[in-house]
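Write out this protein's structure.
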Amino acid sequence: MKAMILAAGYGRRMLPLTEKLPKPLLEVKGKALIVHHLENLIRAGFREVVINHGHLGHLIEESLGDGSAFGLQIQYSCEGPEPLETGGGLTKALPLLGSEPFLAVNADIYTDFDFSSIAGLSAETDAHLVLVDTPAYKGNGDFSLLDGRVKRDPVLTYSGIALYHPRILDGACVGRFSIIPRLNKAIDTGRVQGSYHAGNWSDVGTPLRLFQLQ
C-alpha cells in the first residue's frame, strides 16, 4: 500500500514561522513534522510515499530527496502557489497513487498512531477515518462512531489520518475542491468505516500549539 502525506497547505495560521519555511518542515522535538511521519510509516511497513506540496515546496524536496535516506521511495505532486485542498490534491496525485486503497496523512499533525493498525477497506466501503477526542480549542467535533461506521454527528474530531479507495474521487477533475462533500455522501450511504485513537495526537496549527507541543 502507498501512503500520501498532505503537505500543500500555505500555513497562514503559522505566520511568521512559515514565511521562509513550509509548515511540514517546522521541528517538533528536534525533527521536522514530516520526518516524524516518514519514520512512523517506515515502522508500519510502508515503502512508497507520495507528498504533495505548494508554498515553498521545493524546500521539502530538497530536504527529503527521493526518500532513500529513510529507506523509502518518495514521489512529489507539486500544486503550485495555491493549494488545491484535500479533494483536488488527492485527485492530482492519483496517477502516482494508483488504483488501490492508500493511506492519507495530514503533514501538520503530530501523533503516535500506529499506521499499520488501520483496518483495511471492505468491498462496501470507500474510506476509513481515524477519529480522536475533540480538543478544547476546537469546540465542536466533526463526526461520531457507531458500530465501526462514521456518522455525521459533531462528537469526535477527524485526526487527519484516513484510508481512501480511489473510487471516492470518481469523476473528479483536478482543481481546488474539498473532499468533505464526497465523504459526507459516502457516510450517508454507510460506506465509511472509522476507528478511535486514544493516544497522543496534536493538530500543530498555530505557533502557540507548536510551542505547547515542544
